[in-house]
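User
New here, help please:
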Amino acid sequence: MDVLTEGVELSDADLALLAELAKGVTVDRVGRRLDISGRTVRRRLRVICDRIGVATAIEAVAWAARRQLI
C-alpha cells in the first residue's frame, strides 16, 4: 500500500528504507536487509528526498517521523 501525504506518495518499500535509517542502520546494511545494493539504497534515497523536497536522508527520516509514517 502506498502512503499519500501532502500530495507526496511514498511506497511501503520507501517507508521501510526510511524506518531502517531511523534505527541507525547504515546504508550498506539497509541494502543487505532489503536485498538490494548500497548504491541502489542511495539512489532510492535521492529519489525519496527529491519527491518530498528535502536535501538529505536525515531530513527525509525526520519528515516521515513527524508525519508518523515510520
